[in-house]
Amino acid sequence: MLRTAWTADQLLAADFPEPKWAVPGVICEGVNLIAGPPKVGKSWLSLGLGLSIAGGQPAFGSIVSDSGPVLYLALEDTARRLQSRMRKMLAGLPGPSLLTLATECPPLADGGDRAICGWLDRNPDARLVVIDVLAKVRGGENTTGSQYAADYAAIGRIKYIADKYAVAVLVVTHVRKAASEDFLQTVSGTNGIAGAADAVLVLQRGRNAADGQLHVTGRDVEEAEYALSFDAEHGAWNMLDGPAVDHMVSDTRAAILRFLRNNPGSTPKVIAAGTGITNDNAKRTCGRMVDDNQLTKDTTGRYFVPLAGDALTAPAVSPLSPVSLSLP
């Protein structure tokens, strides 16, 4: 049984294992919510992670991860579509036997939680469970309170599973139509969904050199932004080197950022000389970058790249049983 209470001295003396990472630095054990607009590529990203982890390949094309069993609940797909996607992504390589795919799962409150637990009991070394999408398993929660309480309870069921088995669960959902400067506020539903999750990832369409931008924040993961490129030929999301902002801005701004990281406190004249940009363009662009929170400026007219983060302005759930339902 999952222990949930200690005296203070017991808790201080307890020896807990380090959290297990499905993708080091990005996806940790617990409930990881990934949101994004329709057709942005969330399912391609999720299936790619499943194939990489189950097949012992680097996640996002560059992050070495421990291999292990993966359960992918592709609840908006057909077997034919999954087969077509995997053939494209694997490019002739055999499919990993450690990846289990299912196109149906009951709502969590109607036995879906028991089905997932049954698979996890049979696969104690599991590294990742993907639920694509949340709406297909949440069902109608038996709550008489607010929509917030219902949303929190739905994620709470998944969190119980993640905590019980110390496994990373990636839950795919959507974003609101209304834009927001805070990426957490774009997650569809009430704040109960994002609030109950251990981590939130938001996939947005990229600009300039990047095809996508992945925002990550959570309890065990450092807040970060990653620039991604999409390989349409193989349906693969790959992580780009360097800070995300370098890939999300114009070439001129990227050149200024790279120069200032190596030469903090430079003036526009020095920046122009070091990058080949004209003095007027350097001065004008630096001013606009300050307005966009991409640079800071001191009282003497010297510019700096902000440090990471400087510019970033439940009801009880039912007990879970290890009874196996229909999942293979």
Question: What does it look like?
Answer:
With 328 residues, the chain is α/β, with parallel strands linked by helices. It is built from eleven helices and 13 strands. It has a nine-stranded mixed β-sheet. Helix 4 runs parallel beside helix 6 and helix 10 (268-275) packs across helix 11. Mean pLDDT is 87; it is low at 180-184 and 309-325.
Topology as a string of helices (H) and strands (E): HEEEHEHEHEHHEHEEEEHHHHEE
Overall pLDDT confidence: 87
Give the CA-based shape. Answer: globular
Give the spatial strand order of the biggest sheet.
Answer: 5-4-6-7-3-8-9-10-11
- Total strands: 13
Q: How would you classify the helix and strand content by structural class?
A: alpha/beta
Q: What are the segments in which pLDDT stays under 50 over at least 5 consecutive residues?
A: 180-184, 309-325
Radius of gyration: 22 Å
